[in-house]
Write a structure and sequence with these properties.
The protein has 119 residues and is α+β, with helices and mostly antiparallel strands. Helices cover 31% and strands 30% of the residues. It comes from Amorphochlora amoebiformis.
């Protein structure tokens, strides 16, 4: 398990469908909760990520967003789960904060992260 939030859990997974040059590539698999209350939000997230993917590579901020590799649905005993396969990235912001020096993140790091999030 890589992490979890209010609406989903993110798991370390293996993409077995990738090319022969990069077999068994590690990815992040975000599985959203099956509650009907979350279904619309899950589909909106998939739609938004797909719209961002259509933007030119040079688009402001596009390089700061983890783009989906694929999305699909799985059916379980408690309902339908939307799943989003994502490129495996580095540490989360929460992890960086937790492992920072006792004084917290440096002002330079905070500025860089804030700038990237604002784009």
């Amino acid at each position: 398990k890589l992490g979890r939030g209010q609406f989903s859990t993110v798991w370390l997974a293996t993409d077995t469908s990738v090319s022969l040059q990069n077999p068994n590539k590690a990815i992040a698999l975000k599985i959203l909760k099956s509650s009907p209350n979350y279904q619309e939000a899950a589909q909106e997230e998939v739609d938004l990520l797909n719209e961002i993917m259509k933007k030119p590579e040079a688009s402001i901020g596009k390089r700061n967003i983890v783009l989906p590799i694929d999305s699909f649905e799985i059916y379980g005993p408690h309902g339908t789960h939307v799943c989003i396969a994502l490129e495996l990235m580095g540490k989360s912001l929460l992890s960086l904060i937790r492992h920072a020096d006792p004084g917290g993140l440096s002002l330079g790091v905070v500025k860089k992260i804030t700038f990237q999030m604002a784009l």
